[in-house]
Specification:
Blueprint lengths: L1 H15 L8 E4 L3 E6 L3 E8 L5 E5 L8 E9 L10 E9 L3 E11 L2 E13 L2
Parallel strand pairs: 1-3, 2-8
Antiparallel strand pairs: 3-6, 4-7, 5-6, 7-8
Length: 125
């Protein structure tokens, strides 16, 4: 019982700092270490702008990590507003306890501008 209560408190605390949506937890502009529980689905969200040439790409992760990729989705608020920024979400499912480091690269017109490392710690749940 206590373990379930702790898991619910952790999830509630994570939700307070994340956006909503159908992808489970959403960590916007993630940096550093993020914590989730085993079995949770979550997304890492970055700002992109295809019209200008800004994009984020994940460096391929090693197989067999604690995270299972679920998919990537890019959304723009309106298709009729040229030059407007959108979001790109990299979705994952936490399949086992442990930690995994993910690396993302920010590009401007195919030139790398930033490299960002995000470590995800998965609790036993």
């Amino acid at each position: 019982m206590r373990r379930a209560t702790v898991g619910l408190l952790v999830a509630a605390g994570l939700l307070a700092g994340c956006g909503g949506g159908g992808d489970g937890l959403v960590f916007k502009d993630p940096r550093g270490t993020q914590t989730v529980e085993k079995g949770m689905q979550f997304s890492l969200e970055f700002t992109v702008n295809g019209g200008v040439g800004f994009d984020w790409v994940q460096v391929p992760a090693r197989a067999g990590g604690v995270l299972e990729p679920v998919g990537t989705k890019t959304s723009y608020p309106s298709e009729n507003r040229a030059g407007e920024s959108g979001t790109k979400r990299f979705a994952y499912r936490a399949v086992r306890a442990g930690r995994q480091t993910l690396v993302f690269r920010h590009y401007f017109r195919s030139d790398p501008k930033e490299s960002r490392t995000v470590t995800v710690v998965v609790g036993g749940g």
